[in-house]
Amino acid sequence: MRLNRRNLRKGATGIVSIIIALLLLTSLERFVNEATPLEELTLLGYQNDGLIGANVDCGDRALNSTLLVHSSLGLHDNLTRTVRSLQHYPEIRYEFEQQSLSFENWVDKNWVELSGSAVWMARYQVYLLVNRVSYYPSGNLAQPTISWLRGRLYDSAWQPLDGHTIDWQGEAIAFPRIFDVPISWPPSGQIFWGAEDPRILLEENVPDAEPVIVFNMIEGLNLRRRMYIHRPFSRFTTSLTIAHEEPHLVEKNWSPFFDPSRGEGDDPASVPRPSHHLHLVYGFHPLRVLRCDLRDGRCDWDYTEEASTQLVPDGPHVDGDMRGGTNFVPVQTTTSSSEPLLRLWAGLPRTHLDGGCSEGATYRPELMILASPAPAEFYILYSSDALELGPAVLNQSAQTHPCSGPHIVIPYAIVRWDQRPGHDLMAVSLSVADRTMQVVHLQGVRALIDRLPVMRTGMPDLRTRDRDAEPDVPRKSRWSAAGKHVLECSVSAARNTSLENVKHAERLLTGSENLR
């Protein structure tokens, strides 16, 4: 949905003053201060309340909400310095020596930083950002020869901490740094080598937890693109392999999350220990979830959705789908007697939609909530229309020409989320046109979640909720079918919003908008 263009500071002054007073209570909130304009985002979403039946449509699941969006912060770095740190590769020295530009001009013409994913490390009171550094001598940014992963630290106000070190098990680790992922220079003429699409996450409230970086990379001369994990402090890297399955030619877009209820046998009264396992959403349609061992990369299927089309109609057909975006973050819930094991996660996957822009597919983030009422059981509980963040992340030119590059908006991480009542502030890192690294703050996500029926009722069998009187449908079948329908409604709404934004921009360019 489109942002309401009015600045909330020009109206409802008393309400906004209360919001600002609350924002000053923590380091995260102090950064989002009175100088940061707020925009109001009216968001259409679709909720899963277990309702099934042949006559259920998207309107039956609709839930309108409002988020506040703070203007984004752009993250920049000294790219020349970054490339100099890679000169231990003889191939890089050779590539530079074969041309006549100065080193700085060569870097400006052939190198780029993108794909910023970050996490807040409370133990050190810093943000750790991991991004991709790519070399593209062809001049085509979409076809880089090779990419590396780089880490940089920021303080709570997103000021870079150059030359900063953190202590990890007695070792001082200095930043910024290129992470020690084993990367080979590609054979002549090959492209897309090295590490791509990094996502970083950290277990919450686990004192000794080490961040995990999830990324994809071409594996050797077989040219298969596989998923990997990297531990940036202990320098451990391994590929992720699904047990008893041959890897596909391309594996990417897996969405990682930790399940705090699936621990390693901790005594509940003791300090929690780092998990040996990581969950990843392999795909959303159908919903499929992997559980991977962080010690050796072995993955097993933890959940595979089996949604019968006889329980709920197919959603509107759309030329596109939902793919991985950010990590998923646990939602802090109170224990319910009706559903004592219910766990929720919030994430921002992204739609890949064709037909809106002739220049290519449109990518937009959506807000999604996953639910798990029992071990190895997952459902899509909520999924929104596209988050059209407008002037919060796009400049005026990008808003006027939505197909010239801004048709690609990719969310990379939920960096930090203060879920406390009265605070409700989420930091998200994203990229526009694969050229920027930005952090935007969303306010009201937790309030949206609290409005979902499951927060009051849990996820019972709901045998009386059938639109067409299906008395004996088990919970798994019911909630899977309804969740599949929620996803289809979400993707369809995102497509409609994408088309409307293009038409809106065209009307503005022709002047016809003023006549409406």
Summarize the structure in words.
The chain is 18% helix and 38% strand. The protein is of the alpha+beta class and 516 residues long. The chain has one domain (64-263, 273-504): Tachylectin-2, Chain A. Strand 7 and strand 8 (171-175) form a beta hairpin. The two termini are 19 Å apart. The model is unreliable at 5-25 and 462-469 (pLDDT under 50).
Features:
single chain; 516 residues; alpha+beta; Tachylectin-2, Chain A; twelve-stranded antiparallel beta sheet; eight-stranded mixed beta sheet; 10 helices; 27 strands; BMT1; signal-anchor
Topology:
Blueprint: E1 3-7, H1 13-23, H2 27-31, E2 38-47, H3 58-61, E3 62-74, H4 79-84, H5 90-97, H6 103-110, E4 111-121, E5 126-135, E6 146-154, E7 164-168, E8 171-175, E9 177-178, E10 193-201, E11 212-219, E12 224-231, E13 236-239, E14 241-242, E15 255-257, E16 277-284, E17 287-293, E18 298-304, E19 320-323, E20 329-331, E21 343-347, E22 350-357, E23 360-374, E24 377-386, H7 396-400, E25 409-418, E26 425-432, E27 438-443, H8 445-450, H9 454-457, H10 475-510
Parallel strand pairs: 6-10, 14-18
Antiparallel strand pairs: 1-2, 2-3, 2-24, 3-27, 4-5, 5-6, 6-9, 7-8, 10-11, 11-12, 12-13, 15-16, 16-17, 17-18, 19-22, 20-21, 21-23, 22-23, 23-24, 25-26, 26-27
